[in-house]
Amino acid sequence: MSAMSEPASSVAEEMAEFRRDAPVRVAELASLAELEDAVPSLTGKRSPLAGWKRALAGLAPDERRAVGLVLNEVANEVDALVALRRADLAATERRERVALDRLDLTEVLDGPLPGHLHLVTQVREELEDVFVGMGYEVADGPEAETEWYNFTALNMPRDHAARSNQDSFYLATGDHESHLLRTQTSPVQIRLLERGVLPLYAVAPGRVYRRDTSDARHLPVFHQIEGIAVDRGVTFGDLAGTIETFVAAIFGSGISSRLRPAYFPFTEPSAEFEITCTICRGEGCRTCGQTGWIELGGCGMVHPAVLESTGVDSETWTGFAFGFGIDRLAMMRHEVEDIRSLIENDVRFLTQF
Ligand code: DAH
């Protein structure tokens, strides 16, 4: 063996090893980026192939040819491996990109979700239906009221304590505190009585406004429904019967109502009406404070001062009135825990009703 054959044979061994390992090394490259990073050390200037090519010059001519042939083969093989792997990775990465970008169009295949009335509107319409069934008319009143309709005519003069319980949004029109967003639907009672058409049986649903910070039980804008019945010989018993009837119609059997003494300036006597707790059905739970009852609204016999303030003769006519929150009633019926979910416009919530 010549002195030159030593490096030649060790080069041959190294090339054989490189050739054997190349497919595994190339297969391990997991992305196009990794592959491009590895190319210089596989087939480029920093690869052993480049070193061996340079070393050819020092070999004897016949060895140079033999080693050169193999070197070419190995270089071509590795080039081919890299090209194949590059095509593979490019295809995979394109597929992944397309999958990521793909829009799920099945959602719109059936067309957009059909809309429906808001839960509060549904309940309002049901209440209207129940009362229309009992011979009531459905009335309406302005949301921007004068303090006379919202308070004074309802037997709540300017210094009346009850005014401060209903923190108001006053409007910057006219005199100081002369106009406000109604804090209750009760002013519609006055507007109906003023018409002077008796007997009167009416309900008036609508928005009311109070300067409350919203929390799970309060919103600054919510809904009430007012009821008023004025006729000859109307009694407190008629009031109790009317409330029992509408509670049964809205909540079904198993939920009943009861009245408890209370105070409202525009009724005398006044009562709060409660219904069986819809969560525990009267057993007692956290929602009803273990009482089995939940307060729904206020009611009473229309105060003679209210009748007189609208020119109705309180000797001839008597009546009852009631008012309660529609949102609260909807919450109780559907076990909605947070009143704010009614106004958040989350389709996942709204589509349940
Ligand atoms: N307006 C009262 C409120 O918002 C509710 C109310 C109580 C209405 C008694 C009535 C009534 O008609 O008689 O708190």
Descriptive overview:
The chain has helices spanning 5-27, 32-42, 48-56, 61-101, 106-109, 119-133, 147-150, 161-165, 187-194, 236-251, 304-309, 326-334, 347-350; strands spanning 137-138, 144-146, 179-181, 200-209, 221-231, 257-264, 267-276, 293-302, 318-325. With 353 residues, the chain is α+β, with helices and mostly antiparallel strands. Strands 1-4-5-9-8-7-6 form a seven-stranded mixed sheet, with helices on both faces. It has a two-stranded antiparallel ribbon with strand order 2-3. Strand 6 and strand 7 form a beta hairpin. Helix 1 packs parallel to helix 4 (61-101), helix 3 (48-56) runs antiparallel to helix 4 (61-101) and helix 6 crosses helix 12 (326-334). It is rod-shaped and about 135 Å long. Mean pLDDT is 91; it is low at 1-6. Bound molecules: 3,4-dihydroxyphenylalanine. Residues 184, 186, 226, 264, 267, 297-300, 321-323 line the site of 3,4-dihydroxyphenylalanine (DAH).
